[in-house]
Amino acid sequence: MGQEGRLTPAVPGFRGNKAGLPSKPCVQCGRTMTWRRAWAKNWADVKYCSDRCRAQAR
Ligand SMILES: [Zn+2]
Predict the structure, then answer these.
(1) In angstroms, what is the span from residue 53 Cα to ligand 1's centroid?
(2) C-alpha distance from residue 4 to each of 9, 10, 11, 12, 25 (Å)
(3) From the CA of 11, how far away is ligand 1's center (Å)?
(4) Prediction pTM value
């Protein structure tokens, strides 16, 4: 009889809930911004993580 300690430690989606959402870096500060529902319509045009970065870019 062998005791197999073959437990599966990997729990998919435990800490990676955001994995399914797209993300890209802010062109101003480089911070990764994760897709927001508010950006659903213009995600392709989103370049800055916040209005602050947008203001600094100008
Ligand atoms: Zn930014």
Answers:
(1) 5
(2) 14, 17, 19, 22, 44
(3) 32
(4) 0.61
